[in-house]
Amino acid sequence: MNTPLKGKDKVLMFRLFQDKDKANATRLALQTTHSIKNSRKTDSTPTKDGNIVSPGTLETSIDIEAIASDDLTNQVLAYAQKKGLAVEVWEIDFSQDPQNGKYVAQYGVGYLSDWEVPAEVDSNTTIKTTLTVSGELVKGLATVSAVDVATVKNFFRDTVKNATEVAPIDEAPDYGSSSSSSATTPSK
To answer: Tell me: the pLDDT tens digits for 88-104?
Structure first.
């Protein structure tokens, strides 16, 4: 049976392209949604034998929404949009197990075309922006910090200093063990 893909398992990370040699990519805090859109315009030329359709260049854009906050990534993206700076983007797929400590990802470089901050009366302030990628997104393997992995995957951390993140204990009953047979069944 096919397993459905969940949006919560795909997270965006960003970095100013000009900082590629001096800073790590960071995750946008409180991201609520993003959508990757590939589009291609076509030209149609009428001829006496019928229309001839020619494909245009592929354009990739990423629509991003998040709850506004004062985190550094939010500030960097707003600055990049105002100054017209190139931004690197990674879509990290946490639904797959890491390969040699790296996660399957898509990568691209582009520019933020807009920056919208709607502030409605009865809800959180949000940010909405669109990043248009130069070329197209390419697949590869990306390194993700332990802190970001723990935040996304809800790992458990012990109370002692320098503790590492570990997977949480599965709360589902183990139906194959003898302890499950000792469970009582509700009376009818």
So the answer is: 999 999 888 888 888 89
